[in-house]
Specification:
This is Condensin complex subunit 1 C-terminal domain-containing protein. The longest helix is centred in the first third of the chain and has 21 residues. Helix 2 runs parallel beside helix 4. With 172 residues, the chain is mainly α. The chain is 70% helix and 0% strand. It has eight helices and no strands.
């Protein structure tokens, strides 16, 4: 399938040449990747390509970008790859990603979980506060699995902001 290889080359070139001020270019990458995932990302070879080539570049962009809009768009791309379809428009899918992918113990090493690690290590207090209520609810859940995962996430967030005046935001 020559088309698939051309599409892969397009993604990598576009990601390599991406600058955050070129939002329209990024929107085009996002749209094309969404179509690629919907129609072509099916076999082992595709998953391997996604994990070894496209995913690290997206994570690198996420890590380097100072733009919340760009970071949210990248999280939305990952949500599409992982078939999360109930995106919360107001919060750009962050809560849905958290609920659907980070709570499942079998997803411990998932791409989405790595996204959360990076999100927590780079997020400002406002973005962390957006996640606070869900995490707090999880940490008090009657479901032992949810409670344990929520407490781990809460601990991770508190660790990221320790020494910061805003740690009170995350106290139980």
């Amino acid at each position: 399938m020559g088309e698939k290889n051309d599409l892969r080359t397009f993604f990598i070139n576009a990601l390599d040449n991406f600058e955050s001020k070129k939002g329209m270019v990024f929107d085009h990458i996002h749209y094309t990747l969404e179509r690629y995932v919907a129609f072509q990302l099916k076999g082992e070879e595709d998953i391997l390509w996604m994990n070894e080539t496209c995913y690290p570049k997206l994570l690198s962009l996420f890590d380097e970008s100072g733009s919340i809009k760009v970071r949210n768009s990248i999280l939305m791309i990952f949500s599409e790859i992982y078939k999360i379809d109930e995106l919360d428009a107001e919060q750009r899918g962050l809560k849905v990603l958290l609920r659907k992918k980070f709570l499942d113990p079998e997803e411990e090493q998932s791409i989405a979980n790595h996204c959360l690690d990076i999100l927590l290590s780079r997020a400002d207090d406002k973005l962390k506060e957006m996640l606070r209520d869900d995490i707090r609810t999880m940490s008090k859940s009657e479901d032992e699995r949810l409670r344990e995962r929520g407490l781990k996430l809460l601990e991770k967030i508190i660790g990221e902001v320790s020494g910061n005046d805003n740690t009170r935001i995350f106290s139980a």
